[in-house]
Amino acid sequence: MDQEIASAFNSALFHQKALAHVRIMNAKRNAKGRFTAITHPNVTAEMALQYREIIITAARTVDNGAVDVEENESWVRLNIHPVPLVRYMGKGTEGLQ
């Protein structure tokens, strides 16, 4: 079903003439039964939500229970801080306790 929902989203976006880069890279159903989707790397959730009705309609072709679309993350910038592996794997550290 994961590929089916991603395909439904992308097909609907294509047929409604959404910008070419507004596509879903991956979609799946999470543990709570909700669809989660990852957009193309150059597309924010805000950009994808401009096509909210198209996405909801596409989701309903796979699951009639789909009622809304919302963004769950809004990252402007991602910071990665280095942490030495020895902190977790060193002698006497007992892992990630």
How is this structure best described in words?
- The protein has 97 residues and is an alpha+beta fold.
- It has one domain (2-89).
- It is 34% helix and 11% strand.
- It is built from four helices and two strands; from the N terminus they run αββααα.
- The protein has a two-stranded antiparallel sheet.
- Helix 1 (2-15) packs across helix 3 (52-62).
- The longest helix is centred in the first third of the chain and has 14 residues, at 2-15.
- The protein is elongated and about 55 Å long.
- The N and C termini lie far apart (37 Å).
Topology, element by element:
Elements: H1 2-15, E1 24-29, E2 35-39, H2 45-48, H3 52-62, H4 86-89
Antiparallel strand pairs: 1-2
Describe the structure concisely for a colleague.
The protein is of the alpha+beta class and 97 residues long.
Task: For this entry, give a set of tags.
single chain, 97 residues, alpha+beta, 4 helices
What is the oligomer described by this structure?
single chain
**Number of separate helices:** 4
Order of helices and strands: HEEHHH
Domains counted in the coordinates: how many? 1
Low-pLDDT parts are: none
User: What is the terminal separation in angstroms?
Assistant: 37 Å
Judged by helices, strands and strand pairing, the structural class is alpha+beta
Instruction: Indicate the overall shape.
Output: elongated
**Biggest β-sheet: count, sense, barrel?**
2 strands, antiparallel
Query: Roughly how many Å is the radius of gyration?
Result: 18 Å
Number of strands: 2
- Give the helix proportion (percent range): 25-40%
